[in-house]
Design goal:
The chain has 183 residues and is α+β, with helices and mostly antiparallel strands. It has 2 domains: 2-59; 68-172, no CATH class. It is built from 3 helices and 9 strands, in the order H-H-E-E-E-H-E-E-E-E-E-E. The protein has helices at 2-15, 23-59, 105-109; strands spanning 68-75, 78-82, 90-92, 117-119, 127-131, 137-141, 144-145, 164-165, 168-172. The strands form 3 sheets. The chain has a 3-stranded mixed β-sheet with strand order 2-1-4, with no helix packed on it. The protein has a 3-stranded antiparallel β-sheet with strand order 3-9-8, with no helix packed on it. A 3-stranded antiparallel β-sheet has the order 5-6-7, with no helix packed on it. Helix 1 runs antiparallel to helix 2 (23-59). The two termini are 30 Å apart.
């Protein structure tokens, strides 16, 4: 967003007509060129700092959400699995039974559910655990690793359902199994 505003301001400066032939016009044109150069440099430094901070945050170790007792909740007429805090649980299409394909920045947006987890009311699938490449233990449902989504800001949301991010599709885990997803 910062880059867009900065480039809009620079475009406005570039679009302003310069007075030619007058001493004051040449001075104004030099001033505008200097301001534009300094503005471009400042925007570049800020953009680089934001990019560096994003990469550093995403490249850190994956944070996990506590597993605890899993339960079912109704979201949009569908019964889905949720963690102990009521956060919707997701599965990642590129994962395979017993192996997560979500690491690094992926795991920053889709925190793995820490294992082991226990089944609460309505949870009919088989719960298990898998060991991630970093040695942490992740909960799995019917063999598929479980995740939450940072885009869900409160219990009862399923903002990650159907998203194609981080190399594949994400689906909420329905109480009736992994194969059934909402459109």
């Amino acid at each position: 967003m910062i880059e867009v505003a900065a480039f809009a301001a620079l475009a406005g400066l570039a679009a302003m007509p310069a007075a030619r032939g007058r001493a004051g016009g040449r001075l104004l044109a030099r001033f505008r060129a200097g301001v534009a150069g300094v503005s471009i440099a400042a925007v570049s430094v800020v953009a680089l700092a934001v990019l560096g901070a994003s990469v550093a945050a995403a490249g850190g170790p994956a944070t996990t959400t506590p597993g605890g007792t899993l339960k079912t909740v109704r979201i949009g007429g569908v019964m889905v699995l949720a963690d102990a805090n009521g956060r919707t649980l997701y599965w990642f299409a590129p994962d395979t039974a017993g192996r997560s394909a979500c690491y690094g920045s992926c795991a920053a947006y889709w925190p793995p559910v820490k294992g082991p987890a226990t089944a609460g009311p309505g949870v009919t699938g088989t719960l298990s655990v898998l060991t991630r490449s970093d040695g942490s233990v992740q909960a799995a449902y019917d063999g598929r690793p479980l995740y939450t989504y940072v885009g869900d800001s409160a219990p009862g949301q399923a903002n990650g359902n159907g998203l194609n991010l981080n190399g594949g599709l994400w689906h909420e885990v329905t109480a009736s199994g992994l194969a059934m997803v909402r459109p």
